[in-house]
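During the reporting period the student researcher (J.K.) took over the structure-prediction task from the postdoctoral fellow and processed the backlog of single-chain submissions. One of the processed entries is reproduced below for the supervisory committee.
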Amino acid sequence: MTSIVTPLLISKTENINGHEGTLVVKDSLVTIIWEMNNRMFMIRAQTEKDTAIKVAEGVKYIN
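J.K. obtained the following structure tokens:
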């Protein structure tokens, strides 16, 4: 797991349904980016980190 921490920024690797993603928290903005089925997904919200992860885990790819 890789983590970067500065006074206003936290970046770390997060598992999203078996896919490696990047979670970035800057001030009150949470961003999660991950790849699934050759598609890139991004969630960005002003919420708690755990809530954003739950939203990302709820994403289902439908072909």
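The committee noted the following: The chain is about 15% helix and 55% strand.
J.K. will present the remaining backlog at the next meeting.
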